[in-house]
Amino acid sequence: MIHFVLLISRQGKVRLTKWYSPYSQKERSKVIRELSGIVLNRGPKLCNFVEWRGHRVVYRRYAGLYFCMCIDEADNELEVLDIIHHFVEILDRYFGSVCELDLIFNFHKAYYILDEVLIAGEFQESSKRTIIRLLSTHDSMVEMAKEEATSIGNMIAQVTK
Amino acid sequence: MDSLFQRSLDDIIKGLRHQQAGESAFVSKVLEEVRREIKSTDSHTKSTALQKLTYLHSICFVDMSWAAFHAIECISYPNFTHKKVGYLAISQSFQESTPVILLISNQLRKDLKSNVEVEVSLALECLSRIGNLDLCRDLTPEVFTLMASSRIPVRKKAIGVVLRLFGKYPDAVRVCFKRLVESLESSDSPPIVSAVIGVFCELASKDPKAYLPLAPEFYKILVDSRNNWVLIKVLKIFTKLAPLEPRLAKKIVEPICELMSKTGAKSLMFECIRTILTSLAEHESAVKLAAGRINELLIDEDPNLRYLGLHALAIVAPKHIWAVLENKEFVIKSLSDPDPNIKLESLRLVMEMVSESNVVEICRVLVNYATKSEPEFCNVILGSILSTCSNNVYEIIVDFDWYVSLLGEMSRIQHCQKGEEIENQLIDIGMRVQDVRPELVRVGRDLLMDPALLGNPFLHRILSAAAWLCGEYVEFIRNPVELMESLLQPRTSLLPPSVRAVYLESAFKALVFCLHSYLKSATSSDHSALGLSDPGVSSQSYDEFSGAHGENGEASGTTLIQENHITPDSVLHLLNLIDMAVGPLSGSYDVEIQERARNILGFTELIKPVLSDSLHPQDERHKQQVEASKMVRLLHDTFSDELGPVSMSAQGRVPVPDGLVLHENLADLEAVCGSSLPASSATISFEGSHNVEGATSIFISDQKEESEPSSESTSLLAEHRKRHGLYYLPSEKNTEHHEANNDYPPANELKSGVTVSNDAQDLAKLAEQSFLPKRKSKQVKARPVVVKLDEGDVLPISSKIPQAKDDSLSEAVRDVLLGNEADADTLTQKAAADSVIRKKGKEKLNAKEQEDDLDHMDSQSGTVQNPVKERSKRSSRKQNADEGDHGGDKGKQKRRHRHGKHRTREGVQNPPANVISQTPVPDLLL
C-alpha cells in the first residue's frame, strides 16, 4: 500500500501531503525533511527509487515539482510511477496544463483529485474520464452551494436571524 | 458582518508568497486571526477560517489539533462547500487519538446514508483515513450497505474502506467478507474488481493462508483480466499463495509465463518476473524465461529498469546463482554506476556471487574499489566484505593468512569506520583458528608499530584487538622488545582508557615472555658454557618449569628462534622502559589503567633486584636466577593458558557440584576469604587481571569457573547469563573461588600441546556439545581448523518464527470462508468450499459443474497440459454454462441469488443497531 504522498518543490517547499499510515505531526515533519534531503539531491539521470527506512520511496519530477510516494518493499515500483503519472495527467487535464501555481492556489482541489485516485492507500480509479466527471460534479455542487449562500434571500435570512 | 473583512485563503497564500523574510511572523498573525474567526457563529466565516488553518497545517505544519471540534462543526453544515472544508480538515489533521473523534460518528453515518453521491464519497474517504475501532464498529453496517450500492464510484470507495474496517475492527469480516468475495465476480465493472483485488492483495500480504480458498477466483481473474492494474495485484496475491500450495504453483506458472512474454507494460512484466523468482523458483523453465527478461531490463537505457533488473537478480540469487553469474560483467560494471542505489544493489549481488574459489579475487577488487570511492560507500563495501566473509563462522575462507592480512589492509583504508567489526573478527579468528596466529600477530604488530594510526579514533578498536592478540600470542613475535616499545610508545596517550588498559596488559604479557625466554636462554647457555659446573640446579630446575607449562611444542619451538633477541642489555632496557612509560600511569585517574600499571610496576619491583643480580656474573647467580625463574614461571603459566571461543549456552551445561549452596546467606564468606586470600594471593592475583583483560574480548574462557550454579535461583542466573553473556564481566570473585572449584575443569580451556581437534573432542564430552573441527580435503592448501561451536556461536536471539499476526482478522476470515470447518489444507477442500461460496445453488447441474471443476483442477495439477487443451476445456465449460443459462435453470438460480442478496441488505438495514451480533454469516455463505 502507499503510506504517504508528498509533493515537494525544487526549493524544498511542501505543496501537498497525504498520509495513509499513521504518522504523528512530529514524524511527518521529520519524514519530509529527511526525504526532501534525499530526493532533491539526486541527479537527473538516476533511477526514481530510493530505499528508505525499510520502505521504498518512488519519486518523479515534473517541472519544478517532485511527486513522491512511499510504498512497501514488495510493491511494484513501476506501477507506482504509473500512478504518479496518472495523477499528474488528471491534474493536467483538470487545470488545463497544470503548473505549480495551480496547486498552490487550489490546494484543496489537489486533495480532492488525489482522493479520487487513491483511497486508503490503494489505487482506486484508472479511468481519467471518470475522475474528471466526478470532479466536475463536485465543482458544480460547490458552485450551487455558493450561489445559494450568496443569494439575496439567504443574506436576508442571515441578517434577520 | 465579519465575513466581509475576513481574509480569504487566496489572500493568505498570496501574502505568504510575498513574505521574503519573517514568514513565521506572518503565519502567527494569520493564526491569531483564525483563532478569532473560527469561533464565529457564521458558517461561512468559520469554514474559511478552518480552510486557512488547514492550509497552514499542511504547508507550514502548524498545529491544528485545537480546532478539531470546529472541524466537526463544519461537516455538520448543510452547505456542501463548508462540509467539504470540514472533511478535508479532518482527514488531514485527525489522529486516532484525537479526543473528539467519536463525536463524528453520527455525522458520518448521516452522510454515508446521504442521497448525494459526493457527500457519501467524502464520508467514505474520511472514514478510510481516520477510522478507529469505535468508528469502524459503529459504521460497519453502513459501509456494508454501500458495498452493494448501484453507484459504481460509491461502491468502489466502500470496498476500499473495507480494508480499514478489517484492520481496525476484525469482526467486520463476518459482516462484509461475503460481499467482498462476491464483488470479485463483478467482471462487468473493472473499477470494482480493481478495488477488491487491491483489498485482497493487502489482506493476503499479512496472512496469505486464510485466502487460499479463494484461489480459483483469483485464477480466473489472472486468466481473464486485461487490466494491468488488476493483473499486477493478482500476481502479488499469487506470490503469497503459491508457496503454500505446490499444486497452485503448477497451475499458475503457465499463464504467468504467457503474460510475461506477451505484455508490453514493463510494470506488469516486472511483476511477472518477481512472482516467478519469488514463488515459482522451482520451475526451472519459467525461471529461465524470467532470466531472459531480466537481461532485457539490464541493458535498458532507463536506470529504473536497470535497477529493477539488478533487484530481480538479487531475488533469484539464493536459489539460482547461475542467473547472476550470467550477468557477472554487468554487475561488476554497475559498481561504478553514478546512481548510488544501483551501486548498492550490484554490491549485494557481487557478495552473493562470492564463493570459496573466488573470494580472494573478489575481495581484492572490492577493497581496491573501496579505497577509491567516497567514504560512505567505502564503508558499505567494507561492511559487506566483513559480513560475507565471516558468515557462518568464516565458511568461505580457506586461506586465513590472506584474510587476516586483508583485515589489516582494510584497517588502513582512510575512511574505514568498521573498527568494531574488524576488532571482533580479529579476536574471534585468533581464538578459533590456531594456525593463523603467527600471521595475526604479524598483522597486529604492523598496526601497533605505526604511530600515525594512533591518531585515528576509528582505528582504536582495531588497535585494541591487535594489542590483545600480540599479548596473548606473544610467542609468535619475532622481536618482543620492539613490540614492548610500540605498546608503550608516547602516542598511546591518544588512546581511550579502555584500549590503553589492553595495551598495558599486553605489555605485561610481553614482558613476562621476554624475561621467561631470557632466563631460559641464560640457563641453557650456562648449561653449555659451564659445562658440568652445576647442571643439577639450573637446568634441571628450569626443565621442570618448562615441563610444567608446556608440552606446547610449537611455542617453545618459536622461542628458540627468538632467544637471540633477549640479551641482558635488552632486559635492562625493558625494565627501564617500563619504569619510564608505565610509572606515571600508576597515578592515572582511570582505575583500569591504574590497576594494571601497578601490577606491572609491582612485578618489576619484585623481579628487579633478583634479576639485576643475575645480570652480573656472580657466584650465587644461579640461586638468584632460580628465584627469578620461579616468579616468571608463575606468571608465564598464568598467561599461557589458551583462550577459546565459548558457547553462549555453555554455562547452563556445567554440572552442579554437590554441596554448593549458593542461594543461602553468604555470611561466612568472609571467613573463607580471610583464610584463602593471604595464602593464595601471590599466585592468583594476576589471574584476576588476566580475566579483566579477557573481558575486552568477546569470549572469556574463565567465565565458566566463576560460579557453579546449584539450584533454581542460580539456574535463573545462568539463564540470564546465557542470554546476555556478552554483558557479563567475569567477576574478580573468581580468584576466591578458584581453589574450591579446581575439581571442575573449565568448560573450554584449550590445553596446549594437544591438537585442537582432540581437545575439541574432550571438550565435547565435557560440555555435552561438539566442536566441529572443519576440514576441507579438496583444497590445494588445507583449510586450517576452525574451532566451531555447534550452537551458541551466535547469541541466542529470541527468534520466534513469525506467526500469523493479527490472528483475530485471519481467524475471522477463516471462519467466514470455511464456516468453522477445518483449515483449507488441500486444494480439493478449498475448491469445494469455494465453489460452494461461489454458486450457493443446490441444483444438480451445479453440483455436476462443481465436480467438473474439481476434475479440472486435479488434472491440471497432475500433469502439465498443453495450453490448447486447457483452453478448449475451458471454453467447453463456458458453453456448458451458457447452455445452462439458456435452459433457464441457471437463470433462475441467478435470480434467486440476487434476491438473496437483496434480502441480506434489508436485513441489515432494518435493525442496524445489532447487526453485528445478529448476522449469521456462515449460514448465508454456505
Automatic annotation (TrEMBL), chain A:
Q: Biological process (GO) annotations?
A: cytosolic transport; intracellular protein transport
**What PROSITE patterns does the database record attribute to this sequence?**
CLAT_ADAPTOR_S (PS00989)
GO CC list: AP-1 adaptor complex; cytosol
Please indicate which superkingdom the organism of origin belongs to.
Eukaryota
Q: Keyword Protein transport, does the record have it? A: yes
Q: Tell me the CDD domains matching this sequence.
A: AP1_sigma
Pfam families for this protein: Clat_adaptor_s
Q: Where is the AP complex mu/sigma subunit domain?
A: 1-141
| Localization per record | Cytoplasmic vesicle, Clathrin-coated vesicle membrane; Golgi apparatus
Membrane topology per the entry is: Peripheral membrane protein
* Keywords tagged on the record: Cytoplasmic vesicle, Golgi apparatus, Membrane, Protein transport, Transport
The molecular function GO annotations come to:
clathrin adaptor activity
Q: InterPro entries of this UniProt entry?
A: AP1_sigma, AP_complex_ssu, AP_mu_sigma_su, Clathrin_sm-chain_CS, Longin-like_dom_sf
Signal sequence segment: none
Family note: Belongs to the adaptor complexes small subunit family.
What the protein does comes down to:
Subunit of clathrin-associated adaptor protein complex 1 that plays a role in protein sorting at the trans-Golgi network and early endosomes (TGN/EE). The AP complexes mediate the recruitment of clathrin to membranes and the recognition of sorting signals within the cytosolic tails of transmembrane cargo molecules.
Quaternary structure note = Adaptor protein complex 1 (AP-1) is a heterotetramer composed of two large adaptins (gamma-type subunit and beta-type subunit), a medium adaptin (mu-type subunit) and a small adaptin (sigma-type subunit).
Query: What is this protein's name?
Result: AP complex subunit sigma
From TrEMBL, chain B:
What domain of life does the UniProt record list for this protein's source?
Answer: Eukaryota
Principal location: membrane
Q: Where is this region: Disordered?
A: 822-926
Places the protein is found = Endomembrane system; Golgi apparatus
Q: In what ranges is there compositional bias, type Basic residues? A: 892-904
Location of the Clathrin/coatomer adaptor adaptin-like N-terminal domain? 25-604
Q: Quote the biased-composition stretches of kind Basic and acidic residues, using this chain's numbering.
A: 879-891
Protein's recorded name: AP-3 complex subunit delta
